Amino acid sequence: MKIQIPDDFDPEKIIRSGQCFRASAQPDGSFHFITGKNMLSLSPLGADTWEADCTPYAWKRVWAPYFDLSVSYKSLRRSIPAKDHFLRAAAGYGKGIRILRQDPFEMLITFIISQRKSIPAIRSSVEKLCLAAGKEITKNGRTFYTFPSPSALGKLSVNELKNCSLGYRAAYIHATVRMIAGEKISFTKMETLSDKELTEKLLLFPGAGIKVVNCISLFAYHRTAAAPVDVWIGRVIQKYYGGISPFPSYGHAAGIFQQYMFFYAQAKKLK
User: Fold this and answer.
1) pTM surpassing 0.70?
2) By three-state DSSP, how is residue 117 classified?
3) SMART domains this protein is in (predicted)?
4) Residue 108 sits in the same domain as residue 214
5) Is residue 116 domain-shared with residue 200, that is, in the same domain?
C-alpha cells in the first residue's frame, strides 16, 4: 500500500539515531523495521510517498503509532528559539528523526546491553539474543526473529547469555528477568505511573542506571521530557551550554531535541 507522510520522516536517520537496533537499510533502498511480531518494509516513492508492505489496518494500529505520526515534528523544529544556535543546527541536520514507540521490555534489555558498547556492537548482541531465544517468523519470503519474551530469556543461563557477546551485562539481564518473573512485573501497568514514579521503578532493575532509565522512558514509554545524557550529550552541554543542561527548559520536547543533538554530535565527531 502507498503511504503519504508529509511531516519530517527519514527512516535512514531514525535507524542511525541510536534508539532502535533491529531496523536496517537494505541494498535496494528500502528500510526494514521490526516491532513485536510485526515486520515492515518501506520503500521511498518520492514526494513524501512510501510503499509499505502491510495492510491499512496494520499501518493504523501498529506502524503509525510506532513512528509517532500523530505529532508534528516540523512544528517542534520551528519552535526552537533563534538564539539556541546549536540546537537549531542539530535539528536541521537531524530533520526526519522521530521518537519511536517501542516495546518496554525490549528497551529495558537493549539499553542494559548498550552500556559501554558502540551502536554496531549493540546491534550484534541484540541480534544474537533474538536468534538464541526469539521466535522465527517468515513474511513475504523474509525470515526474522522476534525479541525474546521475559520467560524465553529466563530459560537462558548466564553463560548462554554471555555467548551473545553480553559480557558482564549477562548477569544483569539474568537477574532482571528473574526479578520480572518473581515480582510479576507488568510493563503495561507502568504506563500509568508519573515520570518520577516510572524513573524510580525502572531504577530498581539490575544494571539500569539513570541514563539507561531515561532511554527506556523516552523510547518505550514516550516520556519526551526525558533526555538521556551520554558522552556525546555531555560534550554538547560542556561546549555549547556552559556546563548547564538546557533540557529542563525544553519541557516535553527535551527528549526529541536530545535526539537531534546526539545525532549531530556523533556525526560531526564532536570533541
Assistant:
1) yes
2) coil
3) ENDO3c
4) yes
5) yes
**Domain that includes residue 186, residue range:** 104-219
Q: 101: exposed, middle or buried (C-beta count within 10 Å: 0-12, 13-18, 19+)? A: middle
Is 49 found in the same domain as 9?
yes
Cα distance between residue 184 and residue 165, in whole Å: 28
What are 88's three cell numbers? 537549531
Q: Show the cell assigned to 62.
A: 501498529
- 40-85 confidence digits (pLDDT tens): 999 999 999 999 999 999 999 999 999 999 999 999 999 999 999 9
Q: Are residues 115 and 204 in the same domain?
A: yes
- 229 inside domain: yes
Whether the Cβ atoms of residue 173 and residue 112 lie closer than 8 Å to each other: yes
Half-sphere exposure of 157 (CA within 13 A, CB side): 2
* Three-class secondary structure of residue 36 per DSSP: coil
pLDDT tens per residue, range 167-222: 999 999 999 999 999 999 999 999 999 999 999 999 999 999 999 999 999 999 99
Q: Which amino acid is at 166?
A: L
Quote the CA–CA distance of 162 and 165 in Å, as a whole number: 5
